[in-house]
Structures are given as C-alpha cells and as structure tokens.
Design goal:
The protein is α/β, with parallel strands linked by helices. Helices cover 41% and strands 10% of the residues. Helix 2 links the parallel strand 4 and strand 5. It starts with 16 loop residues before the first helix and ends with a helix.
C-alpha cells in the first residue's frame, strides 16, 4: 500500500535545488522530443504529486521518469539514503514511491559523489569496510548529468551547474526552432529566470489551494517561454526609449519645450515602437526586428541636430505627432530622423518604398518636404518623375488599394538647417 508523504509544498521555492532539478529534467526531455520531432503536447512536469516523488515527468497520466532530490553535503554512501533505497509502504512512509514506474524510470539526484551505489553487498564491504551496506530494494538509479557525473554541485561559477545544463539545452531548443536568439546569452538567462518564476507561482498557487493540489508545468508552456522573442523585443524598445531620453537631455536648454518629448517618452511600448519606425522610414526594420535591436535606429546626432532643433523652433500646435506632420502658413513638412549622406538620396527613397511595401510605416509622405539630416533640394522622385496615374499604380503595387495619397508628387528633401530657417520664418510671419 502506497502512503502519501507529499506535504512539503508550502515550504518549497522554485529557486531551490529541487525546483532547479525539475526544471532541468523538463527542459532536457523537451529538447529530446523536439530533436526527434515528437509531439510534446501531453507532456508535463509535476512536483510533489500524491503517490509520486519530488519530481515526476509524465506523458498524460503515465510516468516517464520519477525523481527524488537529496541535497546532502555529507551523503557519501548509500546508507545516507536509506529511505530512497526502501520501498514506500505502511511500514516505511518515507520510502520511494515505485507504483507506476519500472526499474529504469526511478532516479535519485544528489549534490556530492556517492560511493558504492551500484555494488553488491560483498563488493561493497570489501571496498568500504567502514560504511554500512543498505540493499537497493527500490532499484533507484543515481541520475547521470550531461557532464557524465552522477551528482551535481549546488554551486559552481557565476551560475549554478544545473543552470548551466539548462542553458545548454535551451540553446539547442532555440537552434532546432531556427530562432536567432540561440546565441543571445541575455535572452537565455532571462528565459530560465522566467521559467523559475513560473514554477514559483505554481508552487504558491498549490500551497494556497491546500492539500491535494500539486504544481503542474506543461511542456507547451515551457516551449512557449523558450521560443518567445517578445521579452527581447520589449527590451529593445525600452533601450530605445532610454536612449531617446538620454540624447534629448544631452542637448536640453531653457529654450526647449519638453511637452512633445514627454509625450513621446510616455507612450506605451507598442506606440513608441511604431513612432520609432515612422521616424526612421529608411531603416532596416525587418533585420533589426529579427535580431531584436530596434534601438539601433536611435542615433545621437539625429536627435541632436534634427529632432532637438525641430522641436525647439516649431510651433507645438502645428505639429501632429501621430503622423509627424507639420504645417506652416504656406508649406507642409514630414519629420524624419534620416541621417544618410547627400549622395544616398536614391537609396533612401528605395528603402522607404520597400518598408511601405512591407507595411512597416504608418505615416504618409503627402507633404512638401521630407525633413532629414543632410539631403537638401532634391525631389524624392527626381529620377522617375511621377504623375497622378503613376502614383496610383505605385500605391497599388506597394500598399494595395488605398484612398489617401501616400506621397506628394512634389515631395522634396530638406536638411535640418533649412528646416530651422523655414521654421524661424514661419514664426516671424505670425508675429
């Protein structure tokens, strides 16, 4: 008769060794399944299950492997693990729960080398005369770790050895999934932290629910956390926002109005990302998104010379942030932070057209001027003059059927210096 002794959930944390072992085992099994192209939707990690052990890896209701974890620093002989080598019963409530498992599915995890675990009585007594022999009635194996050792130290270098094993397997899962983040150490470490936090939450939830409820982590959940790029994308946007603020503050003086910059920095992350892309319509948007480096769009000199000067001399009431449009009494402008050299006007146009074709840019270019760093006095379509019919075809080819004009046929590049001059003239005309 099996006896439930699973009562330690309330005192357990996802950050302790037992939790780390469970996470490692689940990630390792997930890696094997993904390597073999097998369905993992019914696989799960269970802690402290009634009738189970510290950790069970299960397929639906069947046990794939069962694991007990002992963090004994001085557990160097089998007699230090008497309960593990004993079968759970009415006479031994602390024995190993073997029900539902075969001899090949039962494991013990230790933190130091255990001598003579697999020896018979005679050999053991000859080898370790000072130690007591305990028969392995439960047929439990010492777990062999990826480094070939049958134990795993609690501490190692910067992170624990078991975390290192997890990181190695996460990398392989990412490689198998063709995700570029397989070499992104920050992403991988953050992924492991997120998995730890998930385990901790499940433990806490089980504790609050009371007796009979045990933490379960599904492999689908683990894979989603591992393969998700969202956290890195979020970080990229947060870095971009911080750089925006930093470069703005480097140039701050008493004449500048902070209203617009404060509005920008208070945007939600998705809105800020859209604005960032709109301000850099010629950027390698897809490439930077792929490697989660949209913050590379933010350039110190573009903010210093284009953005800062524009906001310093423009009239706030005439500037529409949503579409980056500015209207003077006589002319209209579309703000950008393009910082390409004069000779790159054609390349800039091609990049913008490509990004519009991919629907990466929201704002239109139906203005007189496109503000940028260096290019001035050149028509946007100077190489191929565009008429209304041609513009319609262009719009249809790049962005589908649209009602509003995307480009002005007279759109012209204007550098930041001439932009400031025109803004000053507009101010003078209103006086």
């Amino acid at each position: 008769m099996k006896v439930d002794r699973r009562n330690a959930v309330s005192s357990w944390s996802g950050y302790n060794h037992q939790g780390k072992v469970g996470i490692f085992l689940a990630i390792r099994e997930l890696k094997k399944l993904t390597d073999d192209g097998k369905d993992y939707s019914k696989y799960k990690l269970i802690f402290e299950k009634n009738g189970g052990e510290d950790v069970d890896i299960c397929y639906s209701t069947a046990v794939v492997s069962r694991h007990q974890v002992k963090a004994k620093k001085d557990g160097k002989y089998p007699n230090d693990y008497v309960n593990v080598r004993t079968i759970n019963s009415e006479n031994c409530h602390t024995g190993y729960q073997i029900l539902g498992t075969t001899n090949q599915e039962r494991y013990l995890h230790v933190i130091c080398e255990v001598n003579g675990w697999d020896m018979d009585k005679s050999t053991f007594k000859k080898s370790y005369s000072g130690a007591k022999y305990v028969p392995n009635k439960s047929k439990v194996q010492l777990y062999t770790y990826p480094d070939g050792e049958k134990y795993c130290n609690l501490v190692g270098g910067r992170i624990s050895p078991i975390d290192d094993f997890c990181i190695a397997d996460i990398k392989e899962i990412l490689k198998h999934s063709n995700i570029t983040l397989s070499n992104d150490e920050d992403h991988i470490e953050e992924t492991l932290l997120e998995i730890n936090e998930l385990v901790s939450r499940r433990i806490s939830k089980a504790h609050n629910a009371g007796k009979g409820v045990y933490p379960v982590i599904y492999f689908q959940e683990l894979n989603k956390i591992i393969t998700s790029t969202e956290k890195r994308q979020r970080q990229s946007i947060r870095r971009a926002k911080n750089l925006f603020a930093l470069y703005w503050n480097e140039n701050l003086d008493n004449d500048a109005d902070n209203t617009v910059i404060n509005e920008i920095l208070n945007l939600a992350e998705d809105d800020f990302e859209n604005l960032l892309i709109d301000l850099h319509p010629d950027g390698k948007i897809l490439d930077l998104k792929k490697i989660n480096n949209l913050d590379n769009l933010v350039d110190r000199y573009s903010i210093k010379y284009i953005f800062y000067n524009f906001l310093k001399w423009c009239k706030e009431e005439k500037f529409i942030l949503d579409n980056l449009h500015y209207q003077t009494n006589q002319e209209s402008f579309r703000l950008s932070l393009i910082n390409a050299p004069k000779a790159a006007a054609g390349e800039v146009k091609d990049s913008i057209m490509q990004n519009i074709g991919l629907r990466l840019i929201r704002t239109i270019f139906d203005t007189d001027y496109l503000i940028n760093m260096n290019i001035d006095g050149r028509k946007f379509f100077e190489e191929y003059p565009i008429h209304e019919e041609g513009k319609e075809k262009l719009e249809s080819g790049f962005v589908g059927e649209v009602k509003d004009n995307i480009f002005s046929s007279n759109l012209e590049y204007i550098d930041y210096e001439n932009t400031v001059r025109k803004l000053k003239e507009d101010q003078d005309s209103d006086e």
